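ok here's Protein nucleotidyltransferase YdiU:
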Amino acid sequence: MTQFDNSYVRLPDRFFTRIAPERAPAPEMVLWNADLAAHLGVADWDAEICAGNVIPDGADPIAQVYGGHQFGNWSPQLGDGRAVMLGEVVTDKGRFDIHLKGAGRTPYSRNGDGRAWIGPVLREYIVSEFMHAVGVPTTRALAAVRTGGRVQRERAYPGGLLVRVAASHIRVGTFQYFTAREDYEAVRLLTDHARARHFPQATNTIEFYQEVVRAQARLIATWMGLGFVHGVMNTDNMAVSGETIDFGPCAFIDGYSPKAVYSSIDTHGRYAYEQQPSMAHWNLAQLGSCFVPQLEDELGGQQQAIDALTEVLNSFPGLYQAEWRKVFGAKLGIADAREDDLPLIQDLLGMMAKDGADFTNTFRGLLDGSARDWMLDREIFDDWSARWQARRSPDWQDIAAKATPAVIPRNHRIEEAIQASLAGDDSKAKRLAEVLSHPFDLAEADRDLGLPPREDQMVHMTFCGT
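and the structure:
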């Protein structure tokens, strides 16, 4: 039995708009996350509920308002333009939002249709569940639904809807929205709400900010360890909970390039793979500026507030580097990666970048001896390997096996699944979702999913789907 307890709607009305999802003509379940459904107490939900045609007892549907910097440009009002939050459910592991993405127009749609098509829905389902399976903090997918309607983009596509589950949908942009309006009471209320919900150990505003900074340092390091490129790290796409959110034009690197960009709208590489740490730092600076007025009261002056926030913000690079070192050290089978291990890690990445070596298979190949095969200059690799063997931990294989999955959501495989689904065949999407739910253990029959793309299969550009 679903237990709703909708705390966000107890905030003032200016935080959201109550609105019901638009009706889907003929909803059909494409992917259903039975394990997550059981945990949330929604195992009896069907396509009608997941599409928003039937509102479950206790739900209180809303669209949340927020602003944000999009590619560095300020947008004073964004908000849930194509999503409706049904409400919050409480489990033994905490409180979770249930969100219908692609549920139709809201007051924040900005002339959009409020809908999604099935391609981006399948992408987010597959990628977010993979991220969960490899231990990356992330929103999750409960269901992918075909709505029975058509969505017009560059052509008409089958409509889709994602049922997304998150620790919350509070974003950096949520704080920015109220700060820009000089609604400091709302910022304070939001801070108290988010602190109680995500970081109850934080006793005040500056400690809350510290926790958000730490969470983002951990999150971005895990992205980097997977070769993950988010693609649209706007401040409205950064959740203060520390979860990955909004998987629009995301992609995973095949042949390693630190400058990898896939998003069709990232024309200047603002959110390239190597830029992600600095972009997270920039986003956190925007969040910190929202806390100045309330910290003036807490700390006794504007300069004291700015100094305290600056100190926390300046801790991000060190926190991130420590997390990055831990992530990549583990991929090399090093249990206690130190500062003096950086050359070993960076030299391997340098070889990989020079040769365009497959990111995932090179690291995975350290386990079975095939990493050398991905290199063009194997003598240089052999020299590196001798250094690595002298440094790795005694139980290095156990450490490395848990740090690099055997299979990732390859861009070309996701595209294949989307194209098959457009033709009425959901089997490829279902297979990907199943295999990627246990990505460290690849069965012989699924070895093809671990292969990099041929030249004619490469996906060089991804799209957000709005």
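+1. The longest strand covers residues 140-152.
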